[in-house]
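Quick question about two entries, pasted in order.
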Amino acid sequence: MRRIISLLENIDYRKDKVNVVSLFSGAGGLDLGLELAGLSSVVGESKALEYFNSDKEKFNRYRSKSIFHTVYTNDMFKEANMSYKLNFPNHIIQHEKDIRKVAYFPKCQMMIGGFPCPGFSEAGPRLIDDPRNFLYIHFIRALIQTQPEFFVAENVKGMMTLGKGEVLKQIVADFEASGYTVTAHLVNARDYGVPQLRERVFLIGVHKEKIEKKYGFYYQLPTPSHGETNEINLLEEKLPFVTLENAIGDLRSNPGPYFEGEYSTIYMSRNRKKAWSEQSFTIQASGRQAPQHPDGQPMTKVDKNKWIFNGSVNRRLSIKEIARIQTFPDWFEFSDGNNMKMKKNGRLDKIYKQIGNAVPVLLGKAIMQPISDFIYKEMLERE
């Protein structure tokens, strides 16, 4: 107890910033997206992306201009925490502890987190809090304690349809009971500049008393910035979808390490190879399940749930390639834990898991940009 209280007393709060608590933080995809959104509000999107896409030294010179200031993270994934430490400011307190055993959470104005994708039961609409499922309840517990102005939570698409939608209704009701107006949004990452077909649900919470009632702010999902290149979308001023060619074409001769080994029956049960002109399949949290690189010939379906490779150019996407597809910048470093007793594939898999579990950085930015712009406008009006 004393250790936790001491930990909270050492939090680096800033009065001129929006203090952020990140739960289930992983390697920090959602965190970096929020930071980038806060920087975009201040310096403009083009400048923010210029800094972000340059090198780490340049980004570090400007990242403090972001209106968001993360003070505390919590995650149990050791290697992900090591990666987080490599890429984020050292004032952030990282708590590597089971969230169910965390008694107190730091005060904050913004709380974010991609709570683990639990195996929700189809048995009925009422949910049971057990060791495997429903860690979102501890997210809610943190909200009840700290009452931030906003929260953003992310999860898998299946949450929306499970139990004919009753599961999602219950989750939203549970979040709303802690003092928020909650909206659920199903989005595809490719609609926001991510070179990947990845559908995810975002729960956006706006505090009823502190924000909605006081300022009349209601969250609206940003209009997709990318789409098919046709006459209709040209009128809507959408950018074309980002392709694998756009994202990783320059890595052909230098892809870096990738997971090697045999392919399971499950892996070969469906197509795993996209063309250069398309977006990637969803990046999963497993090296063994990584999609195929676009080079070589397409796969062929030969039977029900059975596909085969063609030609000799067939390999899984590399670490560097999937990080690009998840829109992490090239300067972002991932730790494998430095366990030299573990085989190469095992160490690589630690990184594949971190990247696959993450929210694509640019998707996180897009989803949180309306909140960031609202907060920054209020900051300017108070000056």
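Here is the second entry:
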Amino acid sequence: MIGNDWDEKLKIIWESEGFSKFMKVVENEYAKKTIYPPKNYIFNALKLTPYQNVKVVIVGQDPYHGEGEAHGLSFSVQKGIKVPPSLQNIYKELHDDLNIPIRSDGDLTSWAKEGVLLLNAVLTVVKDTPASHRNLGWERLTDYIIKILNLKEEPVVFILWGNFAKEKAKFITNPKHLVLTSPHPSPFSARYGFFGSKPFSKTNAFLTQQGLTPINWGRTE
């Protein structure tokens, strides 16, 4: 499915009858409607960030629902697409936190290659219909992903922005890990505690303290 160590970690899911049935439902959605991201990008977060490389997890809700935007990474859009408001606010906080220049594009593939798993809780969406695939069945997979990351020997930072992401905190019980929460970076909530929360410097301080290489948040390739 993925082509790296996630295949072994998720083998019990991939080989289950329930997942096979679920993927037929997903295939049917793609056949009948315009669904994002494109099929080959559904598992992009797992493909770009192998289990062994995960240092940070940033949980999103579901993919962007506009044409050409989503490519399987939470908060990220493909090159050439206007940077969405939530990501603009993430960039602003990154600049204020670590003085990293604000980027003109919204493609976070470089973060994924640094070990940041950009995981949406729901991996597909109907065009122009946010949250349309919530409760379709993706949550069973993505909750399981968080649970097995919780079992990781190496410390991981879980960044949970907004109430939806904070719901996942109940799966993170291993005291080795760090959980950072704040309001969502959306323009509707960013001013109520997202701005000034300094998640990027806190993440790197924790990783350094644990003897791990910090994330190069300014990486662009």
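Reply: The beta strands are 35-36, 56-60, 116-120, 125-126, 157-161, 178-182. The first helix runs from residue 6 to 9. Hope that helps.
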